[in-house]
Amino acid sequence: MEARVFQKDWTGTAASARQPSEERLTAVPPALSLECRIDVLFLLDSSAGTTLEGFLRSKAFVKRFVQASLNQDSRVRVGVAWYSRELVVAVPVGEYQDVPHLVRSLDAVPFSGGATLTGSALQQAAERGFGRAIRTGQDRPRRVVVLLTESRSQDEVAGPAHHARLRELLLLGVGSEALRAELEEITGSPKHVMVYATPQDLFNQVPELQRKLCSRPRPGCQTQSLDLVFMLDASASVGPENFAQMQSFVRSCTLQFDVNPDVTQIGLVVYGSQVQTAFGLDTHVTRAAVLRAMTQAPYLGGEGSAGTAFLHIYDKVMTVQRGARPGVPKAVVVLTGGRGAEDAAVPAQKLRNNGVSVLVVGVGPVLRDALRRLAGPRDSLIHVAAYADLRYHQDELIEWLCGGKGGNPHLQGCLQGGPSA
C-alpha cells in the first residue's frame, strides 16, 4: 500500500472560510522527480484588483508548492516575481540557497495595490524574468512562467503573451473561473489553465501543477495503425500566410508517424471556395511523398464551409473504396480560424457516429462558440492563440492521437472501421 504523508495546513485560506485556529490535514504531493529539469518563474499579481487577501493566498500557494516539490536533489529551479504597474523580480530563478531561504524571501515580497498590468508583466518576464538562469543549447532547461492572478488585466495581454511564447516560454495560468477566458488567451491553450472555486481548492491544484510542469507527451504513433485525415481551412478568412503556417504544422506532425499501408495512412482535405481532396489516404505510401504533397496543397480563398468539408470526408475520403482500412482507428483533425464552422457540428457528429474521432484545432485570440459546439462534450478541442503558435501545440495533438497504452482513449471506439461509401 502506498504511504501517504500529511501536514497541517496553516496557510493561505481566507479568514471568512474558517477560523484562524482551525487545522486542516492536507495530503502532500510527492517531490518532483530528478528527471524533471525546468526553470520556473512564479508571477504574482500584487494589484488592487487581486486584493491583499488574494495576494497572500498566491504566496501561500507558491510556498506550498516549493515545500512539497523541491528537495536538495531536485533539478527544478524556482524564482518569484510580482507586479502591478511594473515587474519586480524578488527571487531570481535558482539563486536561493535552499527551500527555507526561498520561503523566507517569499515572505518578504510586498503587496503593491496598484493597477493590474498583466500584459506589461508578461513582456518584462519574457525579457528579464530568468536573468542569469538563461542557458543555451542542450544545457538549457525548459522555462516556465506560472501566472497567479485574481484580477482581469487592465492592459492588452495577447501581444505580450505571444511574445513570451515566441521566446519558447511555457505559460501556465492559475486563477478563478471568472478569469478562465483571459488565462486561455494568455497561455494559448485551455490545458495550460488551472481554475479554482474556493481558497482550499487553490491548494488542491499543487499536484496538477506538478503534472503540467513535468509531464512529457508520449512519442508519436510509430507502431500504431491509424487512418488520419487533416482538414485545413483554406478560406479567405484564414489568408495565404496563415494557410502556409497550417501546412508547416501538419508537415511537422507527419514526421511523428510511420507512413505506410500497414501502419499510418494520411490524407489531406482543404476547403474554401470549394472542397478539394489534396490527396487521399491511399495516395501516398511513404512519409516523404506525404510531406511533398502537403507542400503542394492549394490555398483556395473564398468562403469556406466546414460542414461541407466534413460531409466530403464522410462520402469521398474516409471510405473503404478510397483506402480506409476496416478495423483500423480513424481520426480527422481540422485546423480552422472558426469562421464557416456554424454548420459543422452535425456533419462532424455523423463522422463520430461512424467510428471516426474528430479533433478541432481552433486558431485565434477568441474561441468561437461554433468551435466549442463542433468539438462536442469530450476533450476534443485545442485552442491556439495565433497561427504562429501552432508549433507549440504539436505535442498536445500527437498525445491526443497516440497517448495511452494501445492508442489514445479517444480512438478506442474506432476499431469497427469508418463509414462505407
TrEMBL record:
UniProt domain VWFA: residue ranges: 39-213, 227-401
UniProt-listed Gene3D superfamilies: von Willebrand factor, type A domain (3.40.50.410)
Swiss-Prot/TrEMBL keywords: Disulfide bond, EGF-like domain, Repeat, Signal
SUPFAM superfamilies: vWA-like
Taxonomic superkingdom: Eukaryota
Pfam families, alphabetized: VWA
Entry-linked PANTHER family: COLLAGEN ALPHA, COLLAGEN ALPHA-1(VI) CHAIN-LIKE
Name of the protein described by the UniProt record: von Willebrand factor A domain containing 2
